[in-house]
Amino acid sequence: MGENKAKLMRGGIDMLSFSKQLLTDVGIKDIVVSGNDYQVPDIIANGGPVAGIYSVLQHYRPAAILALPVDLPLMTASALSQLKIKGELSQKACFFQGHNIPLYLPNNGYVELFMSQAFAKNTPLAPGENPQGKKSGPSFKALLNQVPHTSVVPDKISHLFNTNTPEQWQQAKARFK
């Protein structure tokens, strides 16, 4: 993207605030932002988003996580609520069909086993120790291959429009104006 996606403006608010508001609207009371510049610093430097979840699990020990990236500007509270309810009822990892994130992830023995195995060989790195900035952690696909999961068919696929490039961000902006 070339800039911090959390600071991109959607309407009158930045994407981080937009994402937090979505989580609040679905009833999430304890919203935690992971990353070195936020509430929970990464335990594994450049470990990727699963390592961010690992960091939150190590720090807070929540019963479950509803992980929402800041690059889904067309996401709705209704869609997230559907995902959360399905995950809570099934007590399985739950995601939208064809998309590994957003993700409802119960903190259970399956998740703990995966995380302990995935990060056992990874020791915390100081910032700058991985100068290439390469993501070194496991993918969501690897996580979901090891934990019980279910998927939800989204009401609208457009809710999952991901903005990873300036061109995609411009396309999204045209949709929410």
UniProtKB/TrEMBL annotation:
It comes from the Bacteria. GO terms for molecular function: nucleotidyltransferase activity. It holds the Pfam family NTP_transf_3. The keyword Zinc does not apply. Keywords: Magnesium, Transferase. The keyword Magnesium applies. Residues 1-86 form the MobA-like NTP transferase domain. Gene3D superfamilies: Spore Coat Polysaccharide Biosynthesis Protein SpsA, Chain A. InterPro entries: MobA-like_NTP_Trfase, Nucleotide-diphossugar_trans. This is NTP transferase domain-containing protein.
